[in-house]
Recover the amino acids of this structure.
């Protein structure tokens, strides 16, 4: 197991979540800007959290099909390092947002079967990073953060021209196997380190990062 797998903990809402992520030595912390999510934060909350983050922890803002006005308003208040797009943003929209905001963009792509892999190639041409996530079920309320894994064998040995992160249903108990099987060098988790929807658990965060680092 490589010691340098980088971990993103997504859906941070409280000061103690930042403390837990920093103590565990995660590389990325994610803030969800999506009103229907139990992890949603408003700009004022996110600003306070983002300003408390020490250098070395990248602050990722997660958006779902955001319009320009919403992104402008959040970015005017919240210092973010990376934009994560978790909706149905087209490749053209990804390019436009990169140019407009001058921030690296990570595009989430949902995977359920072989037919979803072409999208990774397409977005790999325009995004700075890919988030290879489980495709949400048809009736899901959220486009991500559902705690569901996909069949990791679908991407075993696959590579894209930009860095990528594995996500979807990862937990402290399965992340080592997921890394070994897929060769991922970056992993992302939300539900798997929560004690209840939207409530992060410091002990689970520490266990997850420890397991990912091997
Ligand atoms: O977390 C949310 O509530 C959320 C809402 C809308 C879009 C995406 C969302 N989360 C994405 C993630 O947290 C992760 O990047 C990824 O989907 C893995 O989540 P999980 O399976 O819960 O670990």
């Amino acid at each position: 197991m490589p010691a340098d797998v980088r971990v993103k903990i997504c859906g941070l809402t409280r000061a103690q979540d930042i403390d837990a992520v920093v103590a565990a030595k995660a590389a990325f912390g994610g803030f969800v800007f999506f009103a229907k999510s139990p992890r949603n934060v408003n700009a004022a909350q996110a600003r306070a959290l983002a300003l408390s983050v020490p250098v070395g922890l990248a602050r990722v803002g997660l958006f779902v099909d955001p319009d320009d006005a919403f992104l402008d308003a959040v970015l005017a208040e919240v210092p973010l390092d990376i934009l994560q797009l978790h909706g149905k943003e087209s490749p053209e929209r990804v390019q436009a947002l990169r140019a407009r905001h001058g921030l690296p963009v990570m595009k989430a792509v949902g995977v359920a079967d072989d037919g979803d892999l072409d999208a990774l190639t397409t977005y790999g041409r325009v995004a700075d990073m890919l988030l290879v996530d489980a495709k949400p079920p048809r009736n899901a309320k959220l486009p991500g953060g559902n705690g569901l894994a996909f069949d990791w064998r679908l991407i075993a040995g696959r590579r894209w021209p930009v860095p990528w992160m594995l996500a979807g249903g990862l937990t402290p108990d399965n992340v080592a196997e997921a890394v070994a099987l897929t060769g991922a060098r970056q992993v992302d988790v939300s539900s798997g380190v929560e004690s209840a929807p939207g409530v992060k658990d410091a002990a689970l965060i520490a266990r997850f990062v420890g397991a990912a680092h091997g």
Observations:
- Residues 10-11, 32, 34, 37, 39, 62, 64, 86, 131, 133, 142-147, 167-170, 188-192 surround LARABZUK (CB under 6 Å).
